[in-house]
Amino acid sequence: MHKIIAKNTFYQTLARIFSSGTGLVITIILARYFGIFGYGDYIKITSFVALFYLPVDFGLNAIFLKEDQDLVEFKSLFYFRILMALGIFILANLAAFILPFNSFLQIGFSPSVKMGIFIFSFSLFAQAIILTVSAVFQKTHSYSRYAISVIVGSLINLIFIITVILLKGTIYQVILSFLISNFITAIVALFLVKRRILPFSLNASFTKKIILSSLPLGIMLVFNLVYFRIDSIILSFLKTSKDVGIYGFSYKFFDFLIALPLFLSNSLYPFLLENKKNTRIFFNLIKNYIFIFALTGVFLIIPFLLLSPLFTLIKKDFYLSILPFNILLFSLPIFFVTSLLQWSLITLGKQKFLLYIYLISAIINVALNLIFIPSFSYLASAVITGVTELLVMVILAIKLFGLKIILEREL
Fold first, then answer.
1. Digit-coded pLDDT (tens) for 105-151
2. CA distances from 26 to 31, 56, 185 (A)
């Protein structure tokens, strides 16, 4: 079991290294090419659309894997997600249309940024495909195929971006490059998953069942994303593109690191499902992996603290990104532990509890950002990110410990 977890984590990490490795190279290229203000507009576009990625996810994979052990309803999940993506695509662009912009202060979402959002929002459909096939990769422990699709898409994206920059392209062409590479990743993944999607099939009763079952988890993930990503959006409303660019640049590097606990959790989740009725084994798994998760997060802090001054080699203006990045780094072990606690509670069917916790966290996060961003800008966002995640970790740990005591008494 441990070998399978390690293998799947390795392939997910390998995929992340390629996607984020090329992503970091692209970040450096774009930061040098566009500068802080232009890079800030790029962050506004991608951050806004990313807000709608989790509604496409909606926790459906976790419920799908519980309800369909043999993956016979793959096509139902596939087509339902495409329909979800269509609805969310329309919603995202309606929301973007009414976003404010102060042309005098250059604060908010300019017409060019809104056009970029429209172009990039088509990636919601690619995301729907990738998420759906990921359920099969997760169930069959075949993350090596997932890694192949991500690596292919990432390398093509890098080639496209380099070509666009060499040709002195615009931000629209950069966004289009990202969009095309997303669809290439989705198509390769769909080919490798070896599941038929034709003819069209949608089991209404099964779809209704997983929607209702995933509703608490889906809403929880949406709230999770709000408190996790809303700081960049609030910065966009209250500060110039320069502040957005500074924070967005530091967060790009931090984002690579906080994906690692998700990969570990994804690999561990099927085994948590298999052992959830065996209380002793289940909680021993959690106890052992909490230590691994936390230790991994701690070990990653020091090398990246030492490397952060290299931001200035990209462009001198980005020296301002060093401090928020270092602040974010110290919250890394918290993110690692929270990821495991969250998926442990999902395994035990505590989605409604998680919904309420992430709703409260989202409200607190938004309130704190609105209060402190006007005075402290992106530094406030970096601190608040860690504080809210610490709050979530403590509450989830208390809940899980309480469940452990209750379940052990029932034995």
1. 678 888 999 999 999 999 999 999 988 888 777 766 666 777 888 88
2. 8, 25, 17
Q: 191-250 pLDDT, tens per residue?
A: 888 777 778 777 788 778 877 877 776 777 777 666 667 788 888 888 888 888 888 888
108 SS3 class: strand
If we measure between CA atoms, which residue out of 351, 347, 352, 342 comes closest to residue 278?
347
Residue tagged 């984002």 (tokens)? 255
d(Cα 187, Cα 128) in Å, to the nearest integer? 11
**Among candidate residues 77, 54, 207, the one with its CA nearest the CA of residue 139:** 77
Terminal Cα distance for the chain, rounded: 25
Q: Which of 56, 74, 184 is nearest to 139 (CA)?
A: 74
Tell me how far CA of residue 196 lies from CA of 71, 127, 146, 190, 228, in angstroms: 12, 18, 17, 9, 35
Q: What percent of the chain has pLDDT over 90?
A: 27
The token pair at 408 is 């052990």
In angstroms, the CA 406 to CA 300 distance is 35
Contact 113, 45 (CB under 8 A): yes
Residue holding tokens 């450096």?
28
Question: Which residue type, as a one-letter code, is found at position 319?
Answer: Y
Reduced to 3 states (helix: H, G, I; strand: E, B; else coil), residue 107 is strand
Report the C-alpha dihedral over residues 299, 304, 305, 307, rounded to 10 degrees: 140
β strands within 78-189, DSSP E: 101-102, 107-108
Give 3-state DSSP helix, strand, coil % of the chain, rounded to 5.
85, 0, 10
Radius of gyration from C-alpha coordinates of the chain = 21
Cα–Cα distance between 272 and 265 in angstroms, integer? 10
- CA 314 distance to own-chain centroid: 25
Q: Are 239 and 373 in contact (CB under 8 A)?
A: yes
